[in-house]
Amino acid sequence: MNPIELRIRDAADYIRRKTDLVPELGLVLGSGLGDFCVGLDHAVSIPFSEVPGFPVPTVEGHSGMVVIGRYNGVPVMALRGRVHYYEGGTQQEITIPIRVMKLLGVKTVLLTNASGGINTSFREGTLMLISDHINFSGANPLIGPNLDVFGPRFPDMGDVYTRELRKKIRAQAAEMGIDLREGIYAMTSGPSYETPAEVRMFRALGADAVGMSTVPEAIVARHTGMQVVGVSCITNMAAGLLDRPLDHAEVVETANQVKQEFLRLVEAVIAICAEN
Ligand code: HPA
Questions:
Q1: Cα–Cα distances in angstroms (integers) from residue 134 to residues 53, 120, 226, 270, in the given order
Q2: H or E stretch including 267?
Q3: 145-199: per-residue pLDDT in tens?
Q4: Of 70, 25, 71, 29, which is closest to residue 227 (Cα–Cα)?
Q5: Which residue, judged by its Cα, is nearest atom 2 of ligand 1?
Q6: 124, 213, 217, 232: which one is catalytic?
Q7: Tell me, what DSSP letter sits at residue 117?
Q8: 140: left (phi > 0), else alpha (psi -120 to 50), else beta?
Q9: Catalytic member of 12, 236, 255, 268
Q10: Which CATH superfamily is domain 3-274 in?
């Protein structure tokens, strides 16, 4: 068997032995959102480092836990933290947890992240529903032998972030008084932030936000036929837009400040995904 497929199967078998719950919704919790897991009932938590085959994160603020439990009755598998491409693994490896979600029963994945605002009408703390992406990471998680059991060699990417779900999420957010914008997310490999020239290029290409994650996960999730929702927290304006240097502490601080609003939105998304 393909070594990546073996790792996916080992991880899924291990997690299955820890819980009887069949998760319907998969959640990837980016910077500052890990607290969401506190709200899961009867949760089972497993460190990434304990799951055979799983990649292990190295970045501060991404502790790396799989948490499986119910949220308002909906069976959820949450990844508290993620492994980023810039940590050195291949995109095939860092997306192993997404395929594990599929094997465990997940139908819809909600991907969250922190990103830099490119759209000049955004502010620090703006929440953006991802309508589409630009893969500027220089790689693709589907490079290499195709894992036919998951999906086709040349998967369609015409509706990565399910249009129908986005429509419902926008309506729900409006009803809850959550200010939700929508836009295109561009991914770079990182770990250096963009230069001002790169940010101008991304704006010219039609991007509204830029970050270092999410796109490989979205591609793998769509490849295997899961529905995808993406929500980005604009933690800072991208390079060159404000007259000061970017630093990771600012990203973490803004993510913490808007956490409550972000969590309310996540809750709304869960309610909508559960209906589908
Ligand atoms: N650029 C890239 N990734 C990011 C940023 C940014 O400005 N902010 C948070 N993640």
A1: 29, 18, 19, 25
A2: helix 259-275
A3: 999 999 999 999 999 999 999 999 999 999 999 999 999 999 999 999 999 999 9
A4: 25
A5: 211
A6: 213
A7: E
A8: beta
A9: 236
A10: Nucleoside phosphorylase domain (3.40.50.1580)
What are the C-alpha distances in Å from 82 to residues 60, 102, 124? Answer: 11, 17, 22
- Cβ(198)–Cβ(244) below 8 Å: no
Nearest CA to ligand 1 atom 7: 116
pLDDT of residue 89: 94
Domain limits, the chain = 3-274
| Pocket probe mutation, ligand 1, options 60, 124, 194, 258, max atoms within 8 Å of Cβ | 194
Locus of tokens 């990771």: 248
- Measured in angstroms, how far is the CA atom of residue 193 from the centroid of ligand 1? 6
**Alpha carbon of 209 to ligand 1 centroid (Å):** 8
pLDDT digits 0-9 by tens, 14-48: 999 999 999 999 999 987 676 777 777 778 999 99
pLDDT digits (tens, 9 = 90+) for 54-90: 998 776 544 689 999 998 889 999 998 899 999 999 9
Of 187, 192, 227, 178, the closest CA to residue 208 belongs to: 187
Q: Which of 11, 84, 161, 223 is catalytic?
A: 84
Closest by alpha carbon to 63, among 25, 99, 35?
35
Whether 133 is catalytic is no
The pTM (predicted TM-score) of the whole model is: 0.95
d(CA 70, CA 210): 32
Indicate the residue type of 247.
Answer: D
